[in-house]
């Protein structure tokens, strides 16, 4: 309530709402019914200008499953049925809209990869480390880091394990710690490979 009191015009994101405790749904019902919420200290917060956005993976697996035959089938109804079973009518009837999202296209997934790599490069700039990522490596990350049910959520963990972690070790304990250099990221035989080139032109390979 304190945050909403300070910022009455807010957007609140509740990710994977299906995992929330049932008391959370009771609170949301109260907010949607009365537009206010009173906390344990008796402070009342006004939620009338607050927008709630809730995400859920309920029904995602059914919607993303492959179609039978040559025709593309719309599995939206299957996902809707799962949502009906997951959330009570009292809760669903108070929502303004339920929006179904299609699986990401390969072009969009590659843009997500680029976003993560741009953020990583910004972190590496102060260490004088330059990333050079091949198209094959981007395709590998896009393929391994995307799941039809979970979307691009696994990608951050994949980049953390395959790129950030070995680079961090090199920056902390290797020659990147003082000299900087270039990290070439490529795909070889189905695996992501890092070739590290120091300013001294000495070159090592990390897999």
Which labels suit this protein?
207 residues; Clp ATPase C-terminal domain-containing protein; 43% helix; 8 helices; ATP binding; ATP hydrolysis activity; Helicase, Ruva Protein, domain 3; two-stranded parallel ribbon; 2 domains; ATP-binding
Structure write-up:
The chain is an alpha/beta fold and 207 residues long. It has two domains: 91 residues, Rossmann fold; 101 residues, Helicase, Ruva Protein, domain 3. It contains eight helices and eight strands. The strands form three sheets. It has a four-stranded mixed sheet. It has a two-stranded parallel sheet with strand order 1-4. A two-stranded antiparallel ribbon has the order 2-3. A hairpin with a 2-residue loop joins β6 and β7. α6 crosses α7. The radius of gyration is 23 Å and the shape is elongated. This is Clp ATPase C-terminal domain-containing protein. Keywords: ATP-binding, Nucleotide-binding. One of its GO terms (molecular function) is ATP binding.
CATH class of the largest domain: Mainly Alpha
Segments where pLDDT lies below 50 for 5+ residues? 66-73
Work out the oligomeric state of the chains in this entry.
single chain
Number of strands: 8
> What percentage of amino acids are in beta strands?
15-25%
Helix residue percentage: 40-55%
Domain Clp ATPase C-terminal: 104-194
Keywords: ATP-binding, Nucleotide-binding
Protein name: Clp ATPase C-terminal domain-containing protein
InterPro entries: ATPase_AAA_core, Clp_ATPase_C, ClpA/B, ClpA_ClpB, P-loop_NTPase
